[in-house]
Amino acid sequence: MYFLLLGLYIRKGCDKKMVKNLETKKFYALNRFFDFGTKQLNFDLLNKYTGFFGENIFVNAIVGKNGSGKSSILDLVYRIINNLGNEIFHSRFTNVDYETGYVRKVFADLYFLTSDEVGLVSCRGDSVGISIGNIRMYFGRKSRQFENDGYTQEFGFDEDLDVKGLLKDFFYTVVSNYSMQAFLDSDYADEETKKYRNDETVIWTNGIFHKNDGYSFPIVINPYRYKGVFDQKKEFQLTNYRLMSLLIAAKNKNKDRGIDEERLQLIEGYELDKIEFSLNKEIIYNKFEAYRKKEISSKELLERFRNSLRNNHLTYSRAVLEAYGLYTQYIDIRIDKSDPIVEHALLYLVYKTMNIAGRYPSYELYKTLGMVDFFDSEMEWDNEERAKQAFKDLVNKILKDPSHISFKVYQVLHLLGKYELYSSQIDADKEKSKAWDRNSDMFKPLSQKLKIKPETTFNYSQYEGYDSEDLASITKKLPPTFFVSEIFLKNVEKSSEKKGISFKKLSAGEKQFIFTVSSILYHMENLISVDENEEDRVKYHQVNLVFDEVELCFHPEYQRTFLSKLVGTLKRLELTNSMAFNIIFATHSPFILSDIPTDFIMYLENGKQRNGEEFKNPFGANINDILHQSFFLNHGFIGEFARKKIESLFLFLSNDEQSREVWEDKECKHTIRLIGEPLIREALKTLFQTKFNHSVDDEEIADR
Predict the structure, then answer these.
(1) pTM exceeding 0.85
(2) Other CB atoms closer than 10 Å to residue 115's CB: what's the count?
């Protein structure tokens, strides 16, 4: 399975604010496998690299100094993908909580290889076209350019449009950029970006930080940012949650390994020790707008929930719990006297069920059931039974949904002791006696079985259902997100230590590596979870991973091993069995570049692409050589302050006319003794002896 991004052609007329120092009417090649002039592929060269990085994996790099054009290239790629997604999907996603926007004045073409064919997505102002195999269609305003090239005009709002067929050979892009200066609103505010069929201006990047569309819109940027700024605390919490499933899966796989077999380590040097959970009621309360706005207290919120269940008329809360077969079970024991964890779990279940109905595109039919802030209101339907049936249909759809959308619902059901019942797809109506038998140990809440109290913590090993290696199964059985988790790791080299180390205490570099990889894996698992047969969902089999300045916060050793660990993880989790990956690094790290052959590298200097044949192949090359040629470091490999200091001393000792500083004897000696490079130190020592007619103390230099 071939999947590879080939390059970007920037057309005349592309907005100068986007092009910046890049050239128009120019093709920027990501690798050497595509001849833009003839539009032919070099399969002979490409076949030599088949399996080089691993099955269904290709890796590219974009390198150059700051300001060379790396970010400009990538931003144009993102705009093209965004525009295609906006035209195809926006009219279908009227119920999501964000707005995508079409970026006007983009004139550029993105070429990619899928299977054995060259695909193309082209933006020409207010129109965007896609060409893959026999498909040639465009969206947006009528375009004579596209029609002259044999494209047919289509419309995203056309219900007959075969979106799945159109995008079956397209790709999903996941961008990872943790730079604090990236994707700031102010950098994109002056771009002419419009809402779908609307003149209202939006900032297009804000629409692709979210993933509430069931993974259809073909691009997402990590981490999530609000107005260009990402919340590090929230990101840590999200990563913590994703990481739990990955660590538990790794630990389960190690159970079957022999003593002499290598242990699987998701985090190098560490294995999972334990995970502790504690209830955080605030997480639930903040789901409700009235509480967030401080219009009601937590006590009043809970009282409204209790009253909605006591109400003789059908309320939204009651309808939700009846649909799950939970209403009778818990109303019997007076909700305000029940287990506090159970009460909060039920409130969250009501919220989550209604939120799914009101947010996700594939649940459009149930949108009227999704008014979360009316959870305690009476359902003013003419037919109460019809209202109940609507919620039953919604719940049945959620329970049969194999994607990430249903995970949080299953987590609550597991906490309540209902997981096995619903995961078997048993209809609640046929199992009423079991579902409502609160004397049955099988259906007692786990909080009662484990004697969990709201103010205490408990370990995941007490929790049920973690013997699987499947991430989706593990995730569905984790405690719900209103439990705060803390992960403890065990140092495999210090196995005698009884106390594990909290994940919070790892170094910034270690956590950054884990943040990056676990976030990618999280999206991959969600993409895989999409059902191929679901009519209104796109199933992507090709993924474009972009790591922009991934070396941020990384120790050189983490940079050196990053690609190897990433590829190893994709293979180990068998993601390459069902997906093909194109990986792009925009990097300043010579360690990352030393893992990538020159045939996969775009060299940029001042907005122009340099011919890769001019350079020594960086694969396995000396780091200093890579720094010099790939990042155009013409002033050597030492710090600029040190370079200027040594240059000044050299000019002074050489009696050069350009010397503007006067150095004292002692100052010269002291500086020479500080220099760590022997060749430079010896040369300066010789010049010193010539100028001052005495030598620098060699013993003192050696001691230094």
Answers:
(1) no
(2) 13
Whole-angstrom Cα distance, residue 116 to residue 169? 11
Order across the sheet with 542-548: list the strands: 219-222, 172-176, 542-548, 580-587, 57-63, 601-605, 608-610
Helix axes 316-324, 340-359, angle to 10 degrees: 100
Query: Whole-angstrom Cα distance, residue 72 to residue 57?
Result: 25
Q: Which domain holds residue 386?
A: 282-449
Q: In which element (H, E) is residue 139 found?
A: strand 135-140
Q: How far apart are CA 390 and CA 392, in angstroms?
A: 5
Strands 117-124 and 127-132 turn out to be: antiparallel
Pair (206, 310) in one structural domain? no
| Encoded tokens for 26 | 């120019």
Query: Does residue 554 share a domain with residue 421?
Result: no
The 3-state secondary structure of 164-220, one letter per residue: HHHHCCCCEEEEECCCCCCCCHHHHCCCCEECCCCCCECCHHHHHCCCCCCCCCCEE
* Size of the chain, expressed as the number of residues it contains: 704
Helices assigned H by DSSP within 256-339: 281-285, 289-292, 298-310, 316-324, 327-331
Neighbouring-strand partners of residue 174: 220, 545
Mean pLDDT by 10 residues, the chain (704 residues): 93 96 97 95 94 95 91 97 89 54 95 94 96 93 93 81 88 92 88 73 82 79 81 74 80 69 68 85 94 95 92 92 83 57 90 92 88 93 92 92 81 76 40 33 43 51 55 80 87 74 82 81 82 80 94 80 88 86 92 92 94 83 66 64 86 82 90 84 84 72 44
CA dist., res. 257 & res. 227, Å (int): 47
Task: State how far the Cα of 435 lies from the Cα of 421, in Å rounded to an integer.
Answer: 8
Residue 691 belongs to some domain of the structure: yes
Alpha-carbon distance 192 to 203, whole Å?
Answer: 9
Cβ neighbours around 47 below 10 Å, total: 11
Question: Which of 397, 429, 449 is a domain's end point?
Answer: 449
- Rounded to an integer, what distance in angstroms lies between the CA atom of residue 586 and that of residue 182? 13
Q: What is the DSSP string of 666-690?
A: HHHHHHHHH---HHHHHHHHHHHHH
In this predicted structure, what is the pLDDT of residue 694?
84
How many CB atoms are closer than 10 A to CB 693?
A: 7
Look at residues 256, 269, 263 and name the one whose alpha carbon lies nearest to residue 469. 256
- Return the structure tokens found at 444: 């007692």
Number of H helices, E strands in the chain: 27, 22
Written as six digits, the tokens of 87 are 């035209």
Mark whether 158 and 299 lie in a shared domain.
Answer: no
| Cis amide leading into 556 (omega within 30) | no
**Which tokens is 535 given?**
């009519």
Q: Is the four-CA dihedral 187, 192, 195, 196 of positive or negative sign?
A: negative
Separation of alpha carbons 253 and 233, rounded Å: 31
Distances in Å between the Cα of 22 and the Cα atoms of 10, 25, 183 are 9, 10, 19
User: Same domain, yes or no, for 313 and 397?
Assistant: yes
- Strand-pairing partners, residue 35, are 40
